[in-house]
């Protein structure tokens, strides 16, 4: 006969019952010297080059902050160096290198990833856990008045109002240092020494909603395709000046076309250092990009292709294809005739 289950025999559910084994806490002090050196070496990143005094981007960002904006958004098409420049700006404005946090938004990013979520503890219970934004707010409060910077890459990839929640209101400079309730019932404070820097592609689907949510709180700085930067970088790579002229002319011509989606950034052409590499760049990267941007306008794709043939003419294309063709197999000797 089966044993009767009573209330006394029911125990609380543990993480182990779900196949989750809590990790034992390990202090860095428990590591050997050799292991500690490996950890430090693996986690070390090259230092970020700060923007020099008087740099145009730095002056614009500082002017926006002085006017009372909560932060700045660097806006531009792909390949204009937004992420690199945003990172340099963040480390320039921050009080020190440890005062910068970086996060990348994406389509499935939520409030629970950014402000506060729930996570199981060692007892198997779920408890509120601070996420990126709440963590940097607390760090900035603890180290006030040191400037802290939150760097958000691709801010236009998600529903910004939903991700920020009630914190969006308290980003405004006249509402800083005020305590407010978040979804769990706990409180949060956005301190006055927190700066937000973000990047966005103006042609992303979420930009219309983004503008409505953030236009009063963030200054927008355009990061446009720059032929002068392209020319300078290609010459530094050792490209022939006459070839650089052809690449830059193509780049400038594309910027004048009546389709914002084809106006790619200069980074797309940095590998075009000679005709062979340029043609491979066209085959692997540029042509797929333009085909997607011109899928509703085949004539424009034909125009772009004709412009490209001035960079790498048909004879050069044939030469590239010949260098990539596999060598012909040597002819096999004829079999001897049977006697």
SSE layout and pairings?
Layout: H1 33-43, H2 56-66, E1 71-75, H3 82-93, E2 100-104, H4 111-114, E3 116-120, E4 126-130, H5 132-142, E5 148-153, H6 160-164, E6 179-181, E7 187-189, E8 194-200, H7 207-214, E9 218-222, H8 227-236, H9 241-255, H10 275-293, H11 298-308, H12 314-324
Parallel strand pairs: 1-8, 1-9, 2-5, 5-8
Antiparallel strand pairs: 3-4, 6-7
Helix pairs in contact: 8-9, 10-11, 10-12
How does the major sheet shape up?
A: 5 strands, parallel
CATH class of the largest domain: Alpha Beta
Distance between the termini: 93 Å
Strands, count: 9
Explain this structure.
This protein is an alpha/beta fold and 339 residues long. The chain has two domains: 56-222, 3-Layer(aba) Sandwich (Rossmann fold), CATH 3.40.50.300; 227-322, no CATH class. It contains twelve helices and nine strands. The strands form three sheets. A five-stranded parallel beta sheet has the order 2-5-8-1-9, with helices on both faces. Helix 10 (275-293) runs antiparallel to helix 11 and helix 10 (275-293) crosses helix 12. The longest helix is centred in the last third of the chain and has 19 residues, at 275-293.
